[in-house]
Amino acid sequence: MIYLDHAAATPVHPAALKAMLPYFTEQFFNPSAPYLPAKHIREAYESAKNTIARYIGAKGTDLVITAGATESINLAFTVLQSYPNSRCLTLTTEHAAVLEVAKAHSRDLIAVHHDGLIDLDDLVQKLNDDVVLVSVSLANNELGTIQPLADIAALIQKTRQARLEREITTPLFLHSDASQALSLLDLNVARLGVDLLTLNAAKCGGPKGIGALYLAHGVPVQPLSLGGGQERGLRSGTENVPSVIGFATAITEAKDHLSGSRKKYTKMAQLLRQALKNLPETIFLGNLKHQLVSFVPVCFPGLDAERLIYKLEADDIFVSTGAACAANKGAKSHVLAAIGLSDEEIAGSLRISLGLTNTEEQITIAAQKIVEVVQSEYARISQHTHSIQGSNHAFQGGTNV
Amino acid sequence: MSKVFLGMSGGVDSSVSAILLKEHGYDVTGVYMKNWSKDLPGMKCPWAEDLADAKRVAVQLDLDFEVWDFEQDYKSKVVDYMLNEFKKGNTPNPDIMCNEQIKFKLFYDRAIACGADYIATGHYARISGEKLTNTALLRAKDENKDQTYFLYRMSDAATAKTLFPVGNLLKPEVKAIAAQKGLDVATKKESMGVCFVGEVGMKDFLREYLNSKPGEIREAETDIVLGYHDGAIFYTIGQRHGLYLGGGLPYYVVKKDLDQNIVYVSKNLNHPALWSISLTLRDLHLRNELTVGDLSQTSNLKVRLRHRAPLLPAKFQNNQVTFSEPVKHPAAGQSAVFYSDEVCLGGGIIAK
After folding, report:
1. Is B195 a catalytic residue?
2. Which residues of A are less than 8 Å from B129 in CB distance?
3. Beta partners for residue A176, in sequence order
4. A330–B163: do the CB atoms touch at under 8 Å?
5. CATH 3.90.1150.10 at A2-6+258-381, yes or no
6. Domain residue spans in chain A?
7. pTM for this one?
8. Among B18, B19, B1, B4, which residue's Cα sits nearest to residue B117?
9. What distance in Å separates the CA atoms of residue B352 and residue B350, rounded to the nearest whole number?
């Protein structure tokens, strides 16, 4: 198997799995229970949270553990509830988890350029006094485009200043969904300049169904579920200890190998791009300078990307179109539409995303297969009218009546 | 090379049909007929997975594959028909209507317009003969899977241009071919009943589209109120499940009063409403230029009253089918389908 869809899911890192296992069995206690073994579980849990938090330059108590990025985003957007008649801004290319939540509020969408980068002028224009939350993903989930978050944060800081000078007290928060960027970019919240940050374990070698929301001091989010008051009352329910342990271990692994991983990704992506470049039709999508090194989004105009997926799948090579959830619904990618691709180009676009378990040898094999399949599909549509001798009626005229 | 457009549903039967057609040298284009894409109660995007299954098979066989959108026609010709029948108190069979109006009419017409020599589907049925007038629809080799009950209204013209590649195979043979080719759909659960309602269940579907209000369930013999139902139109004569009248001997629906919204039930399995020796038909569709007179004179006439039900000896006269002994009364709106040996002669819709 050659798996090239790491933007959808990653295999759990062996070290993370190993670290998690005891917490399903002998270390099963409820961290809130009063006896000593339970206290040790609480300590392990808090320590894991601290590990995750340190990775982004924060404290464990700044994090709310959630069931993944979607829940983190939903929780982040509750800040709007604290300010009546407020608005939020987000990009046209955000993940559905952001767009759908934003849609439930007053919202404006900020345009992106053809390379997927935010149109900062559009942001400035829409940053009116009623805007309370701006949400921009650090790296796009289909294109891998890395947004200039520090520039956006600076702009937001300037806007805050301007509001204060005009004695407008409406706060302005910056949220970023960093799901795709976790194992590849600097996520230090101070350097990024974010007030809220969404993290997701499943994209970086952690288990699925676990994530976190970082909250700067004083950001007034509202709990989505009430109960026992865990996570500072912001997320009730018994803590998912094994998954948080796995999350922390996966992050530690990612951090320890960050520069090596980047080199490895760069080398593999280069190999792949070089091979695909030999096809005259290939268009690489996104801004190559501001793109996650693991992403190779590519378009073969005129082809049907789903056919490519099914053909590659027969060779045990797995690639994808757009977001896994969008692909399932048979809908065309709103991200590719937003960067100005035509319907035909969207239909011919693949998302290839590399992972650390990939090898250069795998990439060479996959690249060759992709080239073959693309060539055969172009050949199929170019010679649509072929006629071969011999007619056959095998399924008619069987029995005489 | 004959050009064939094959209706592919994502199921094992149409997938294996694709394999067989290709092996026999046909130039095959797979077509997914998009009939219903709206969300259903509790189900988002019910068609996406079937479409993906169909396309995956087509692509892996290196076939051309297209999606043909019949959604509007399906709504007006099948769903609206179905809803209207229910409103009248009948229990329609939308699969029969779908085959007549969509698969073997619109799909057929469009395929022919696209230059098809044949259309094909994964139905279990066979076709014989060459000329239009004697192109007969025959029961499948697999008696247990035979689908001619659903196909009796397909036109003679379409029949003459249709291939049923799995009609000469037994279901286990079809599954074996799929498994041997490594098709994922080899183990796919079979869809039951109405193509698009399938998983959700007819009642939940109808509830979304028909107005209904709760009413009484009364015992037919005593008029005593036994319980309550959620809309008389949801019930079918002979039905014994879903009445929620508690334990003991089962009750059967024997009468519906749609005006008063009352469902009458009985414990008496011999209640006259449940049995009949003859049925009146409407909207007859006879195949191969057969006349009503021919039908009356068919000596070995057999009738099927439900998909997979036994073939019953019967006589036909003046739109009436008469059996040699009483049969369990099928619901009005269902079909009675005629056979002479393995040939499907046509059928009609049960009026009462």
Report:
1. yes
2. 397, 400-401
3. A197
4. no
5. yes
6. 2-6+258-381, 14-256
7. 0.88
8. B4
9. 6
